[in-house]
Each structure stands twice: as C-alpha cells, then as structure tokens.
C-alpha cells in the first residue's frame, strides 16, 4: 500500500523536497491572503491578477528571464492598475477588473506565441500557465519561503484594521483608519501571493490556491483565527498531496511522463470545498 | 441638561458647496454629553454629507468643526447606513465587537479573560448576547444594528453617530433600538446623534433636534424647533405643524413644493 502511494525515492528527491517546501510556504501565505480576499469580495480581482501574472511570466520567457520575476512584476503592475482603476464601488471595480483581465490575456497570447515560434522553448505555455514546481531551484525556494513569511507577518500585523476596513469601510474611515492605504497594501499582498502561487500551480490556476482553501475553511468555522489556520492546513494538505501524486504519476504511465502538479492540487481543493459544503449544510440542518 | 456643560462637538457656521450647489448653508449646532439628538430631514437634504463633515471625512468650504477633545475626531463611534455582509463570512457578532478594542496581551490569561468579559458586557448591554456566537452576515437588520452599536460603544467614544439606523426596521425593532440609544446616552453620558427622515419614533426620547432642509438647519429642543414659525422660516414658505395623538405632522400649503418635507409626515396627512 505504502509503496503504491509513495514511489521509491520520493523523500530523497530534491525536486520533491523543494516543491513541498515552496508549496507549504505559498499555502500559508494564500490562507492568510485568501481569508481577506473573501472578506473584501475580491475573488474576481484575484483571478484577474493571475492573468496579469501570466502576462509577466510569458514576457519573462520571451526575454529569457526568471519566471518568478515575470510573475511578480506582472502581478504588481496589475495590482497597481486595479487600485488606480477604481475600488470604491463593486460594479465599477468589476468593470475595471474585466478590462484589465482582457488586456492581460491578449498580451499573454502574444508573448506565448512569440516565445514558442521564435525560440526552442516549445513547452513555455505549459510552464507559465500550469506551473513547473519540480524545476524550482534551491535559491528560488528560499526566496519564496522568505517572501511568504514576511508577507504573512505584515498582513497579520494589520489584520484588525484590515478586517474592519474590509467588512465596513465607513466605520474604519470614521475611526481614522487609512482605508485607501490599507487597500493598496492588500492589493500588493494579493499580487505577491498570486505571483508566488504561480510557481506552484501555474499562473492560471493560482486563484484556486488563493480562494479555495479559504472558502472551504469559512464554511467549517465562524472564527477568524481558526478560519485562517484551517485554510493553511487545507492548503498545505492540497499542495503536499498534489506534489506526491504528481511525482508518483511518473510511474503510472508507460510513456514515463508525469501529470501536472497543478491538476492534482486543484482537484484536491475542489474536493475539500465540496466536502466542506456538505458538512456546512449538515451542521445547519441540525 | 445645563447649558454650562461643555459640548462634545460644535459646528460653527459650516457651509459646504459642490461647484455651484450649496449643500450646507451656515449650519451651526452643538452636541452635549448625555443628550440624544435627532438630525431630521427628508432624503437628499444633506444629512449624510453633514455627518461626513462632523466625522472629519469632508472638509467644509467655510466654518469650523470644533471637538472638545482635539484627538477625538478619530474615535467617534459610527454606525453607518445600509451594510451588506455575506452570510458565510467567518466573523461572529462577538468577534466584530472585539475589533473595537485593542488586542489583549496574548501571554496574559488575565488580560485575555478581561477582554472577553468586556466584550460580553457590551453585547449584553445592547441586548445582543443571545446571538453573540452567530455569524454577523446571518443576523437580521435589528440584530446587526445592536452589534454595530456595541462595536461603536466598546471603544468608549464621547460621541455616537448613527446614520439612518431605523430605516428598514420593523416598528417593534425601531422602538427597541430607540430606547436602547436613549439608555446608552444617559447611562454612559455619551452624546448620541441619530439621523432619520421620520421624526415621530424619536419624539419621546429626543433631547434636541436638528431639522435640516435645503442645506439650512434649525437646532434646539423639539419645542423650540418643531414650530410653524421656525420651520416656515427654514423652508422659505408657510408650513403648519400639527400635533395629533402624540405625533407631529409637518404640512405644507397645497401650492408649496412638498418635496423637501420629510416624506412620512406628508404621508401621514394623506392617511
């Protein structure tokens, strides 16, 4: 049974260890960020940021730069554009988000086409869109862990004013909180989360890690600290199991090629969400 | 209430213009500790704008907003109009009230217990204890109002400002909230300012009224302000003030523009 679950060499494999470490760091960051994304109703903005991160990753591939740099620059640029475009009314914000999303997707298509037709890197679309976590270097993993921990610390330091600002902005403004500054700060945290997550699940699917575990957790508990902790656990479970299954999948197929990590992570997240929803309904009916 | 009591807040000759439009015109009034003040006016006369001015969110074109304590304008308890919170937001009523307090020292069990007890005390004071552990997005309008009031009160403000807290509430909840605010004002010596487009629910409890129309305001006790001569001067044409079964009806002449009258008063007359 264990042999079926864990193929030989799993624990000793350096790419697997890298992937698990990076996945854990990003799962923790996504849990904290995702909690506030749902509180602020910014899931759509989060999705748009993943598309802008894709554009950054595609541009980085075209110019032979580190994908992480492209993801970060793309997502932060997108976050700045979203902050400037409008954040007061949900409808205006959604329209601005939709426009930016469209521009970003168009540019991604162009960059990916140029890269695949003008360079030898034919697998670029797969890498950018769906991730390549087994190719992450030791230095990149260290960077991902450091950035994740720093952002988690910073976000938790402003968690209380951020909660009031997210739930009832008018109360926070009347109390003298810098609501606009907090909004910009959070948009940048969301951009960084999406960019780091793009390394694990790929740019297109990083919304799943951002929103999925947090959405499952909020169905299971009504307490903010527990919701964040539970989202972190669910995210950690999804990324770790996803990495293990992706590693194992090399041995499932005669072609000797594995299945993408992002596929497994997203399937696990969706399953968690379905189970959490079922448990929530059972609890409410009792 | 004695006139010698220092006001918590004073507005002196405040005027606010947006382009050519004069939204507030030479508005002056004061709010005193322990007093319940109603800011009455029909929809669109500038009540929310006036609140933004006194909360420090909108700078007046001229005039002055004077706080008894200069550091106070950042600590006014505020309950805004119309709040929509998703039902599955993982925040209980008691969590939201606790957000009005600084975090306790996490390593001190005593401090954490005192923090928890204080939250419970305020939830009980506003009658929110029975639904303290429910998600705030699942609360009814009246229940949410109580939680927002507890959140505002727990930071011990000298002034509690509520923007249209009675709209969308059933008559029973309106009475409960009004009595609660009256009790809060007296027991905790807090100045309470509440905006409403219908004054009758507030008549039994208002110490003072600010009647706002067309950007101009008259303030004083209800007997001083809700009079035909004062309101006629304010509206710029003749209005009558009728008192019927303890209710006040402000009635314009048929030829007058009744758009600026508080809607409920004219509706009452038709009935």
Major sheet characteristics of chain A: none
Radius of gyration of chain A, CA atoms, in whole angstroms: 19 Å
First and last CA, distance of chain B: 37 Å
Counting copies of identical and different chains, the oligomeric state is heterodimer
Globular, elongated, flat, extended or rod-shaped: what is the shape of chain A? globular
Can you walk through the features of this model?
By secondary structure, chain A is mainly alpha-helical. Chain A is built from 13 helices and no strands. In chain A, helix 11 (206-220) crosses helix 12 (224-248). Chain A is globular and about 60 Å long. With 271 residues, chain B is an alpha/beta fold. Chain B contains 8 helices and 11 strands. In chain B, strand 8 (208-213) and strand 9 form a beta hairpin. In chain B, helix 3 (109-125) packs across helix 4 (141-153). The longest helix of chain B is centred in the middle third of the chain and has 17 residues, at 109-125.
Lay out the secondary structure.
The complex is a heterodimer of chains A (286) and B (271).
Chain A: H1 2-5, H2 14-39, H3 43-62, H4 67-85, H5 90-118, H6 124-130, H7 138-157, H8 159-167, H9 169-174, H10 179-201, H11 206-220, H12 224-248, H13 261-285
Helix pairs in contact in A: 2-7, 2-10, 2-11, 2-12, 3-4, 3-5, 3-6, 3-10, 3-11, 4-5, 4-10, 7-10, 10-11, 11-12, 11-13, 12-13
Chain B: E1 9-18, E2 21-31, E3 36-40, H1 47-54, E4 62-67, E5 77-79, H2 93-98, H3 109-125, H4 141-153, E6 159-162, H5 171-187, E7 191-196, E8 208-213, E9 216-220, H6 222-225, H7 228-235, E10 239-244, E11 247-252, H8 263-270
Parallel strand pairs in B: 3-7, 3-8, 5-6, 6-7
Antiparallel strand pairs in B: 1-2, 1-4, 8-9, 10-11
């Amino acid at each position: 049974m264990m042999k079926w679950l864990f193929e030989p060499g799993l624990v000793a494999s350096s790419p697997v260890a890298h992937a698990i470490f990076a996945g854990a760091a990003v799962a923790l960051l996504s849990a904290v960020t995702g909690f506030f994304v749902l509180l602020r109703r910014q899931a759509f903005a989060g999705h748009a940021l993943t598309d802008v991160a894709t554009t950054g990753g595609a541009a980085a591939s075209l110019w032979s730069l580190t994908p992480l740099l492209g993801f970060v620059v793309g997502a932060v640029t997108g976050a700045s554009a979203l902050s400037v475009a409008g954040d007061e009314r949900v409808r205006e914000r959604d329209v601005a988000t939709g426009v930016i999303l469209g521009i970003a997707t168009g540019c991604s298509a162009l960059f990916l086409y140029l890269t695949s037709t003008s360079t030898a890197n034919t697998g670029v679309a797969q890498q950018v869109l769906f991730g390549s976590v087994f190719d992450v270097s030791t230095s990149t993993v260290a960077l991902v862990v450091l950035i994740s921990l720093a952002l988690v610390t910073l976000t938790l330091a402003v968690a209380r004013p951020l909660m009031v600002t997210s739930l009832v902005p008018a109360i926070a403004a009347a109390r003298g909180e810098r609501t606009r500054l907090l909004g910009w700060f959070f948009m940048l945290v969301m951009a960084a989360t999406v960019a780091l997550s793009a390394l694990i699940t790929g740019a297109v699917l990083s919304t799943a890690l951002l929103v999925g575990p947090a959405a499952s957790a909020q169905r299971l508990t009504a307490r903010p600290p527990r919701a964040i902790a539970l989202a972190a656990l669910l995210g950690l479970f999804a990324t770790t199991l996803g990495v293990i299954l992706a590693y194992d999948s090399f041995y499932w197929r005669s072609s000797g090629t594995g299945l993408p990590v992002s596929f497994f992570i997203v399937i696990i997240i969706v399953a968690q969400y379905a189970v959490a929803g079922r448990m929530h309904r059972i609890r409410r009916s009792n | 209430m004695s006139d010698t009591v220092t006001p918590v807040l004073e507005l002196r000759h405040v005027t606010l213009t947006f382009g050519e439009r004069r939204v507030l015109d030479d508005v002056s009034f004061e709010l005193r500790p322990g007093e319940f003040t109603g800011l009455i006016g029909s929809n669109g006369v500038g009540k929310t704008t006036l609140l933004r001015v006194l909360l420090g969110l909108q700078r007046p074109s001229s005039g002055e907003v004077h706080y008894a304590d200069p550091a106070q304008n950042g600590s006014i308890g505020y309950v805004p109009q119309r709040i929509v919170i998703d039902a599955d937001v993982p925040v209980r009523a008691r969590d939201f009230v606790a957000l009005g307090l600084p975090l306790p020292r996490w390593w001190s069990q005593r401090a954490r217990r005192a923090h928890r007890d204080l939250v419970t005390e305020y939830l009980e004071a506003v009658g929110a204890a029975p639904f303290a552990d429910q998600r705030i997005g699942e609360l009814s309008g009246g229940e949410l109002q109580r939680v927002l009031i507890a959140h505002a009160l727990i930071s011990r403000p000298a002034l509690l400002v509520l923007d249209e807290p009675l709209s969308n509430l059933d008559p029973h909840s309106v009475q409960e909230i009004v009595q609660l605010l009256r009790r809060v004002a007296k027991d905790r010596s807090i100045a309470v300012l509440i905006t409403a487009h219908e004054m009758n629910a507030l008549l039994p409890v208002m110490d003072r009224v600010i009647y706002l129309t067309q950007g101009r305001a008259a303030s004083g006790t209800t007997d001083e302000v809700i009079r035909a001569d004062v309101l006629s001067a304010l509206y710029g044409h003749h209005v009558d003030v009728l008192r019927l079964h303890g209710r006040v009806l402000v009635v314009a002449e048929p030829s007058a523009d009744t758009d600026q009258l508080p809607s409920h008063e004219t509706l009452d007359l038709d009935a």
